[in-house]
Specification:
With 121 residues, this protein is an all-alpha fold. The chain has 7 helices and no strands.
Amino acid sequence: MLLAFLSLVASFAPAGRSEQHADDEPSMITMVVANVLSILLTHFVLRRDESRLTEAQRARAWLPASRMAALAFAPFALLIHYVRTRRTVVGFLFGVLVVACVMLVVELIAVATDALVTLVF
C-alpha cells in the first residue's frame, strides 16, 4: 500500500531540467507575468487616454466599475474603448494599433521571462 502511494506521489513530481522545457511550453511564471503585464499596460493606457479626452468623449468612456471589469479582457478592452470614445473609423484603427503595440510589448517581455526561467531553472 505504501509503495503504491509513493509511486503515485512520484508520478506528480516535476520532470528533470532537460525534460521540463523540451516541448517549448511556457512556464507558469511566464504566463502569470504576461497576464499581469497585459492588465497593467491596459490599465495604464486607458487612464492616460481618458485624461486627454474631451468631455463628450469622456462621457462615453468606461465607468470606473466597468473599467475594472473590462480589464479582465485586456488588451482587447482597449479596442472597445477607442471605438466607444472616438466613434470613427480612425478611432477603430488607432485602437487596433494600440492593441497590437500592447500585445507586442507583452509578448517580448514574456519571451524574455521564459528565457530567464529556462536559464535559471
